[in-house]
Here is the input.
Amino acid sequence: MHNQGVGTWIHRRREKSAGKVALVSSGKELRYEEFAARVDRLANAFAGWGIAKGDRVAYLGENHAAFLETFFACGTLGAIFVPLNTRLAAPEIEFALENSGSRILVNARSVEGLAVPGSRGTQVERRLVVEDVPAAGSADDSPAAGNAEDGQAPPSYFLKTRLLPQTIRTWMWRCRWRIRR
Here is the structure.
């Protein structure tokens, strides 16, 4: 059986939408070719760390391109993506990580205060930290981009949903529905 699910979606979309924008954030665009290459690099890193089909990879962070990269990298390998809510307390993060059996935690720098204590005493073998807040003096350090000094969060990345196939939206909805049953 050939996998036509989430694991191959980004690669099929790269071919169909060559040159088109996949992600947008504060005027910065990431094309499908670049996005697929980033997903491949992350999937290769996960595979190098021993992640295979059925293993769990957790993500803790706000809305960011790394969320989608981790989601699609897990799909590429057949790993199970475990999104964690940033509103949970550290003991709840620890319980979720332990209960899910996650071996890798991808977390945003902005939630490091939750990720470090939350991953202690769990099966997490490795943490991957994502720089989600622009460094001071960087090109993104402008009022339009938002920065820590003015109290505004940096703008979020989003996937252009008009390009997201109905089958994936339906699959995501069904997964939520099955969990709540």
User: Anything to note?
Assistant: The chain has a mean pLDDT of 77. The chain has one domain: 6-132+151-176.
